[in-house]
Each structure stands twice: as C-alpha cells, then as structure tokens.
Amino acid sequence: MNTLNRINERILHELSNDGRISNAELAQRVGLSPSACLRRVQELERNKVISGYRAVLNKNALGVGCVAYVMVGLSVHTKASQSAFEAAMDIAAQVVECHNITGSYEYLIRVETADLNTYKNFHTEVLGILPQVTSISTFMVMESSKDQRS
Fold this sequence. Notes:
Layout: H1 6-17, H2 23-30, H3 34-46, E1 66-74, H4 79-91, E2 95-100, E3 107-113, H5 116-125, E4 133-140
Antiparallel strand pairs: 1-3, 1-4, 2-3
Helix pairs in contact: 1-2, 2-3
C-alpha cells in the first residue's frame, strides 16, 4: 500500500470506533461494495496498518479504582539497568503501560490498582525494592475527560 487514501482513512476510523462492525455495515458506511471493502481491510492488516482487534474493558467493573502515571528515574543509565527495570515492569500485573521517555526521568508507567492502599503497596513493594530505581514521581488520575482506549 503506497499511501492512506480517504477511503482507507474512513475504514480505519470506523474500525477504531467499532472493531466488531460487520463487513457489510463497514462497506455501506464507507461507500464500497462488501468485497472491495474486505480486500481493503485485508490489505491494511497485511501491511500492519491494522495490528489487531481488542475488547475495551470496563475498569470499574473489574475493580480498578485507582489509576496513576508514574515517572521513574534510574540510578544507572546502562542497557543492563534498563533491561532489568523493563523485566520487572513486564511481570508487575499493576503496570499496564511502560514507556522509555526523554527528559528528567527514564520511564513513564501507567499503573492500575484497586485503590490507593493497593497502589501504595505497589509503590513500596515493587518499585521501592528495585535497585536501579532512584526516583519516583506519581500523578494520580482524578478523572478522564478523554481516553481513546475506552
């Protein structure tokens, strides 16, 4: 695929809003025949423009009452230190995102827990015991007016 044209952009927009839309409905919304629409979707998948489909979960129904963004600074700036930190975040169930970033901190993580006490335990018992972690700065989410993951 050379470029994203207007029809492909409309297909992506519709699929982003509803990944379970039928091909017939998608085709009608973007003004294509069902077979032409299916070919375009398959091409977008083959070219990794569409990397997958997922269910959007209701975090409140799952008992997630506390969301925090945490900036983490490392004491040593080596590949081994980064790898060790990333491995620890991979196995921490509370961490739903982990990003290596630029700036004063090395990492930005998104943490989801049941409540503030559960977050405090994560802060102390997971982040607090990692030898490469030198600083932690937490930003608690009070409300989200826009979150495209939901």
